[in-house]
């Protein structure tokens, strides 16, 4: 392959089977983009009550600030992955970053819930950055550095989420203006746009057609699925709207499958989804996504509970929650990228995924059983963060092993959607369990509704169960399979 890179910013590849040269900036740029999407996904979660207070809107309304990006992601992520394959990843990444920047500016300058939601819808485009980043790394890095690079980029998911929790705690301490968190995303989006424009070489896509109709149908089906998942605890799980949307999701997604089987160049080849290693990786992503939000949401609420009233918790402020409880796991994610890449390269992605998910089971079980002292809680949180980071570092390597190069973008897009669905289900179930168990406690300033300790134990135990299912998939989902079998399907 002939390189057009500036010699000052490129190095010789150590493997003849990879590109002749590669830019030193490609890996940091792609890891930074993954960090950005994780930052945008998580940064609003601790600030939702504050946003509702400062905009004078209900908790139900402000919940859409988190839901809006998820719905956009479900609609556009597979499309962006396919567009990157067809027209070139650099062009699509720059468009996605521009949309994210515009959305961040809207959210930062607006003073109404309508403008904020419009900004969050545009910010949801950032979820497409993960599959695009993995496609870039597969195309640009030599094989000798590919596992290392993908692991660093994937680990940025966990680091970005942890950083977002810490940053939100600092920026909104003592009732600080919520706009500050969106100015942070403005600065991050602008930086990533400039870095990507400089780092990414201009390469043409492989051509072909884009199945826009398939993308529209898939997006509609995923929105119909995620909307009741994310709002069911407010609407009621047996409410007519909730049940109708679940039914609609089933019909539309089945129609998508029929449409893809009859399309010459489908958005997603059904053989890709049915291939056992790809299916196992996607289901593992869903269960780890569930576990991730069990950790983040459950732990955040637990540590802030007033111990004198609830009989549990650590009376932590938002700032203390961020610094004392969330920061250690966030800092650990920094070296986990290179370590995970080394482990994947030496032992393979499947054993690494299995080890990470077993660690996740232990972490969540510890949170469920041992939560009387802050030190033991912090250790369990650190282990949970490590499990999530390493698990997601292994998954791109599994997909790269079992899908053809031209399917890298769409395969990782589907995996990202599964992570989003898992996170949405995890959030909904944790919130539902806590709300259903809430008991009224009398205080000098009036009654306060608090979840029971048993509700947190149940939520953490379900998180352990999700990690256990992911571990079973890692143990059993890849036996007797050969690399790239799907490419010949």
Determine the number of helices (DSSP H or I, runs of at least 4 residues): 19
- The CATH H-level superfamily of the largest domain is MFS general substrate transporter like domains
Count of individual beta strands: 4
What is the N-to-C succession of helices and strands? Answer: EEHHHHHHHHHHHHHHHHHHEEH
In CATH terms, what is the architecture of the largest domain? Up-down Bundle
Largest sheet: 2 strands, antiparallel
Category from helices, strands and their pairing: mainly alpha
Distance between the termini: 27 Å
Strand content: under 5%
Poorly predicted regions are: 1-18, 485-489
Any idea what the radius of gyration is?
Answer: 22 Å
Mean pLDDT over the full residue set: 85
CATH C-level name of the largest domain: Mainly Alpha
Placed side by side, the strands forming the largest sheet appear as 1-2
Number of domains: 2
Question: According to CATH, what is the topology of the largest domain?
Answer: Growth Hormone, Chain: A
Q: What report would you give on this structure?
A:
The chain has helices at residues 26-42, 48-55, 59-62, 64-87, 89-109, 113-123, 129-140, 143-171, 179-199, 212-235, 240-261, 270-274, 276-304, 307-310, 318-347, 349-369, 374-402, 408-437, 453-476, and strands spanning 10-12, 21-23, 439-441, 448-450. It contains 19 helices and 4 strands. The protein has a two-stranded antiparallel sheet with strand order 1-2. Strands 3-4 form a two-stranded antiparallel sheet. The protein is globular. The protein starts with 9 loop residues before the first strand and ends in a 13-residue tail after the last helix. It has 489 residues and is mainly alpha-helical. The chain has 2 domains: 21-202 and 267-479, MFS general substrate transporter like domains (Growth Hormone, Chain: A); 211-264. The relative contact order is 0.13.
């Amino acid at each position: 392959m002939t390189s057009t890179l500036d010699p000052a910013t490129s190095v010789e590849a150590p493997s003849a089977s990879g590109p002749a040269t590669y830019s030193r900036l490609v890996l940091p740029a792609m890891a930074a983009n993954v960090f950005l999407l994780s930052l945008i996904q998580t940064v609003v979660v601790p600030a939702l009550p504050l946003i509702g207070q400062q905009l004078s809107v209900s908790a139900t309304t402000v919940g859409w600030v988190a839901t809006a990006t998820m719905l956009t992601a479900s609609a556009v992520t597979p499309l962006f992955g396919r567009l990157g394959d067809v027209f070139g990843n650099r062009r699509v990444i720059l468009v996605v970053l521009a949309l994210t920047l515009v959305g961040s500016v809207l959210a930062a300058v607006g003073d109404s819930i309508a403008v904020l939601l419009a900004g969050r819808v545009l910010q949801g485009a950032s979820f497409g950055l993960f599959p695009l980043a993995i496609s870039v790394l597969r195309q640009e890095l030599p094989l000798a550095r590919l596992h290392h690079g993908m692991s660093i980029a994937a680990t940025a998911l966990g680091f970005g989420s942890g950083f977002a929790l810490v940053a939100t705690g600092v920026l909104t301490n003592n009732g600080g203006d919520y706009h500050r968190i969106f100015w942070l995303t403005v600065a991050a989006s602008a930086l990533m746009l400039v870095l990507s424009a400089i780092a990414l070489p201009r390469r043409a896509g492989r051509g072909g057609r884009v199945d826009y109709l398939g993308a529209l149908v898939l997006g509609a089906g995923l929105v119909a699925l995620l909307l009741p998942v994310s709002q069911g605890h407010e609407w009621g799980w047996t409410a007519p709207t909730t049940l109708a949307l679940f039914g609609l999701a089933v019909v539309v997604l089945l129609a998508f499958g029929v449409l893809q089987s009859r399309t010459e160049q489908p958005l997603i080849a059904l053989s890709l989804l049915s291939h056992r290693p790809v299916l196992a990786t996607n289901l593992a992503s869903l269960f780890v996504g569930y576990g991730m939000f069990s950790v983040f949401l459950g732990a955040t609420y637990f540590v802030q509970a007033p111990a004198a009233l609830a009989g549990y918790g650590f009376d932590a402020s938002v700032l203390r929650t961020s610094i004392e409880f969330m920061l250690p796991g966030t800092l650990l994610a920094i070296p986990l990228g290179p370590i995970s890449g080394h482990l994947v390269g030496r032992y393979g992605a499947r054993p690494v995924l299995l080890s990470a998910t077993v660690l996740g089971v232990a972490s969540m079980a510890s949170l469920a059983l041992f939560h009387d002292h802050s030190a033991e809680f912090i250790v369990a949180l650190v282990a949970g963060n490590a499990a999530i980071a390493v698990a997601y570092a292994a998954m791109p390597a599994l997909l790269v092993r079992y899908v053809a190069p031209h399917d890298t973008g769409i395969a990782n897009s589907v995996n990202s959607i599964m992570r989003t669905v898992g996170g949405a289900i995890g959030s909904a179930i944790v919130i539902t369990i806590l709300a259903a168990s809430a008991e009224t406690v009398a205080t000098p300033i009036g009654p306060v509704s608090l979840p029971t300790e048993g509700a947190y134990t149940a939520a953490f135990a379900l998180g352990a169960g999700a990690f256990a299912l992911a571990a079973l998939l890692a143990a059993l989902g890849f036996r007797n399979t050969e690399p790239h079998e799907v490419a010949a399907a």
